[in-house]
Specification:
There is one protein chain. This protein has 98 residues and is mainly β. 0% of the residues lie in helices and 52% in strands. It has no helices and 7 strands. The strands form 2 sheets. Strands 1-2-3-4 form a 4-stranded antiparallel beta sheet, with no helix packed on it. A hairpin with a 5-residue loop joins β1 (3-9) and β2 (15-22). It is elongated. The protein starts with a strand and ends with a strand. The mean pLDDT is 89.
């Protein structure tokens, strides 16, 4: 189970982004993170959701991660997650279930 770092929801309440860190970095190595995006595709049906999850590494000089390592921007209910690490260029991921 990842350690939760960021949890945010779109302004219309139909999409949620959860970012977590798996374990902790070892000897200045990268952190493994998960980015999970869930859309409520039908508010009248329990379990009617679309979920996308990715697992990737974030190179932050072996330091623990916090919310400053991530920016979530919204375009309606379409999130773009940008990761920021001390030892890498920013990486952006845009999620769209449609």
């Amino acid at each position: 189970m990842p350690h939760s770092i960021v949890n945010t929801t779109s302004s219309d309440g139909t999409c949620e982004v959860a970012i977590g860190e798996l374990g902790s970095p070892m000897f200045f190595g990268p952190s493994t993170i998960t980015i999970k995006v869930s859309w409520d595709t039908d508010s009248n049906v329990i379990g009617a959701e679309n979920v996308t999850e990715i697992k990737t590494d974030l190179h932050n000089d072996g330091k623990s991660l916090d919310s400053d390592n991530f920016t979530v921007t919204w375009h309606g209910n379409i999130p773009t997650v940008t990761t920021h690490g001390e030892e890498q260029s920013d990486q952006s991921y845009t999620f769209n279930w449609k």
